[in-house]
Amino acid sequence: MAGRTHYEVLGVPPSASPERIRAAHRQLAQLLHPDRQGTASSAERQLAERRMREVNAAWTVLSDPGRRRDYDRTLRPPSAPGPGAGQSGAGRGAPQSGPEIDDPDEYWARRRAGEVDPDEVPMGAASFWLLRRGPIVAALVVAAILFVGTALAGGRGATRSDAAEDRPPPLAPDSECVTRQSDGSLRTVDCIEPHQAVIQLAGVSSPVACKEGEEFARLNTNEGVCLRTLDGWVPDGGS
What is the DSSP string of the chain? Predict the structure, then answer.
C-alpha cells in the first residue's frame, strides 16, 4: 500500500468511529465500482481496481474491533524509542499530524498528488472530477430533458382540448334541419345546406313535449317538431 495506513486509505483519522469508517468505505466503494468506470481509460480502470483492493483490505481490518486493536498496536511507536526511532516509525506508516479532512475523496486526491507510481498514467483534475461527479450530472441532464418534454406535451394536449370544447356538438346520424322559405313556411333540408334550426324531436303535438332551450314549430306539412335554433333564430309564424 506504498506505506499508507488503512486509515489513510479510507481518508479518516485513527480516532474515527465505526460509523465514520463504514461511511468512508461505502463512499469509496461506490466511487471505484467497475460500473462507474465505463468512460475511463485502461490506465484509470487499473488504478481504480488497485485502489479498490486497498479500500477492501482496509475495511476488512478496521471493521473488526479485534483486528483493529491489533492493527493500532502496530502503528504505535516503541515505548522507549532510540536514536532515529521517530524516522523509522514514520516509515512504517505512523499517522501524520495535520488538519483533519472530512471528505475522503479530497483526502485521497491530496495523497495521490504526492505518490510516485511509475506504472500509473497521471489523472488530470478534469478526469478525477468526472470520475466522481459525472454520473450525477448526467442524471440531472436526463431529468431536465424529461421534465421539459412532459411540459410541452401537456401544453399541446390542453390546447387541443380547449379547441374541442369550442366546437358545436355534432349532429346525430340522419339529422334533419329546418329552413324558412320565402312564403314564411318551414321545411326540412339536409343539414349540409343552409339552415336556421336542427330538429330535435319530430311528430309532437304541442310545445310541452319540447325540452328547455328547444322551440316548438310546425313544418309546411303541419307536422309539429321541437327545434334547436341557431344564433337566436325564432321560428315565428311557423307555429
Answer: -TT--HHHHHT--TT--HHHHHHHHHHHHHHH-GGGGTTS-HHHHHHHHHHHHHHHHHHHHHTSHHHHHHHHHHHSPPSS--TTHHHHHHHTTPPPPS---S-HHHHHHHHHHT---TT-PPPPHHHHHHHHHHHHHHHHHHHHHHHHHHHHHHHHHHHHHHHHHHSPPPPPTT-EEEEE-TTS-EEEEETTS--SEEEEEEEESSGGGSPTT-EEEE-TT--EEEEEESTT---TT--
* Strand partners for 177: 189, 198
pLDDT in tens, 40-93: 888 888 898 999 999 999 999 999 999 999 999 999 876 645 444 444 444 444
Q: Is 172 helix (H, G, I), strand (E, B) or coil?
A: coil
* pTM over 0.70, yes/no: no
Instruction: Tell how far CA 203 is from the center of its chain.
Output: 62
CATH dotted code for 6-140: 1.10.287.110
| Domain residue limits, the chain | 6-140, 176-229
**Residue whose grid cell is 481496481:** 49
